[in-house]
Design brief:
273 residues, alpha+beta, 23% strand, seven-stranded mixed sheet, globular
Amino acid sequence: MFQKALILVGLGILAAAFRGCGKGYLKKAGALLVLLLSFLLGYFVFKNWMGGLAVASIWIFLPWVELLSRTRKLRFPVNNRLAREKAPNLQFFPDAAAAAHALENHFFEPVNSSGWHWAGMHQHFITYWHPEECATATICLCEQEDVVFSFLSITTETKGGERYRTTNFPFASMLKACDNLVHNHLPCKQKDFEGVLDQHRAFLEDRGVTDKDLLMPDPENIDNLIEAEMQDQLRHNEAAGLIATHADGTFSYTGKGLLFLWRQFLKDMIRLC
């Protein structure tokens, strides 16, 4: 028994060490070690491999508790509109003040400040643009109950209608992206704006996007573009069978949509950026 306990403790320490590393492959290895640890715990307690699989599978199916008890009952507004509003104090949001300072140092000009409520979360967008870069940048401030966080996004649109976005949004998306929107999803540890901007430039270069392909953004139309993008995304997800709209102007996730969210939750559990 003592030997088994030492094995579990050793695996737990090794898994925690791997999860704390900066390298993505080590984090994934840490997630596999957590599954192995859970399997061995079940195996030692129930004295058979079925018990080990049952305990290990708890991690995989744990998101369904939230999905079935809460998410499937939620109703989200279809026609969500941004409202111009004063930005909250950036000091309350991790890394937001530093991001705003860095944006202005890189000659991104502030455009406006607006927000909306989405699934119990208040999202506030501070938008910027840079005519020479042909890009817009957004600091998004998120408040949900007692949890606050912020993230950065840089978006470039081509004359052909494709959008390329680099973001350090810390979670997997709750909706499937449209075909004309290509994401470059950075680890959320990439917090400094200069690093995000360099990654965005490299992303465009890797995709073969040149300066002559770029569309000059209209700073007065950024809020409308955010709203229009959300509408396109909702139509795309409804066509894919992930959401269903209702007569009261709301939408909810279908069974297929809940499966999509489950996969997204698993990505977050593995990444835990």
